[in-house]
Input
Amino acid sequence: MTAMTTGNTSRADANRRRILDVALAELLRDPDASMDQIARAAGVVRRTVYGHFPSREALISTLVDEAVAALADADARARDGVTDPAEAVARSVLAIGEIADRYRLLIALAQRTVTVQGIRERLAPLRAGKVELLQHGLDQGVFSSPLPAPALAYVHEQMIMAVMEAVNDGLLAAQEAGRSATVTVLTAAGVPASTATELVARVSEGK
Amino acid sequence: MTAMTTGNTSRADANRRRILDVALAELLRDPDASMDQIARAAGVVRRTVYGHFPSREALISTLVDEAVAALADADARARDGVTDPAEAVARSVLAIGEIADRYRLLIALAQRTVTVQGIRERLAPLRAGKVELLQHGLDQGVFSSPLPAPALAYVHEQMIMAVMEAVNDGLLAAQEAGRSATVTVLTAAGVPASTATELVARVSEGK
DNA sequence: GTCAACTTGCACAGCAGTGTGCAAAGGCGT
DNA sequence: ACGCCTTTGCACACTGCTGTGCAAGTTGAC
Output
């Protein structure tokens, strides 16, 4: 009947995976992409997508879950054991650069209104961690800003988005993007440009 | 019949104005707000909105035109006769703060895909001006950034958005927002924090 | 108070998208 | 070659939005 419930043949899995990947790209291009657009882009018929995901909501929700997991994982691993706030921010931003697309989808969807209720909530812990880190840096005098930490977190988030957008529009080479974004984010947090540049060079080279 | 074509009674004008104002707010909240949502929010029936604007496109287009005009005007006046790039950026950002909502609508709509074809085009001259200004500053060594001027322009745009968003979410007082945003934008462009703070204080006080 | 301009309320056609059912292919392992 | 799982290709019902027509109010100006 409606097909593939639990039993998984390898090819069904591959299709499901491809649908998710393509959906990520399509939704990034247009957050309102229809199931038909996504299906066609994945080289499949609309009906087939409904075979793998019961609804549009469910599809997007899966994407969001994966993205949150990937992001949380990358961030945690990047910051593991790092005490200096500036270095933690640097490592975190560099790590995000590697899963840029997923990050972009999350932020893009979170900014739109109630696409999937709860994106903001699922993203909240990540944001809270960042705010805490920034507050730490402000307290220690490593960072300086007229903005309170939560607002500064918004700014950082958007700056990263902007750099990704620039890469997307061909204004910037993808290889440079990570380091440039990191320097810019640190600079906006009040870290002197020279210090930021050196830190990023050191961190991005030596493992 | 379909009513009000050319002849204008004052109250029709007032209604038209109110619809535009409410539409701005509604579309800011949800870029996909329907004509019905907008109409209800304006205390009017959907049919009435169609009396003033032939289509959704036309309504949004009017809004965009007004926003572009207001923005171009504010920017031009702010930068008139100012030669120092840092001061020009400062005055420009401060001026934008005064018409924040319109700016937000523009950027929000321009980021979404083809809401009204041509938003990007209408916004392009403004962006070009900003890029030129940034390039100027980079050449003179007033600014410094690992990013090329066009990418830096994206970043600035998004930073301003982020600060507005922070105000919207109550993380920041509206009065402080303009100055804070300006300092942050300048800092991200590589202007030392102390210099940026002084410049903004001077500019925002002495007329 | 009368008249014209504006507004309302309802009805309608049209379109695009979602989600579902079902029968007929299609592919892959064994 | 068989069978099973998956995919396809239609069909359908339903919903929500746009844009329009028309007749009956309502309002402000004169």
About this structure: The mean pLDDT of chain B is 90. The domain at 1-54 of chain B is CATH 1.10.10.60 (Arc Repressor Mutant, subunit A). Residues 110 and 117 of chain B are 9 Å apart (CA to CA).
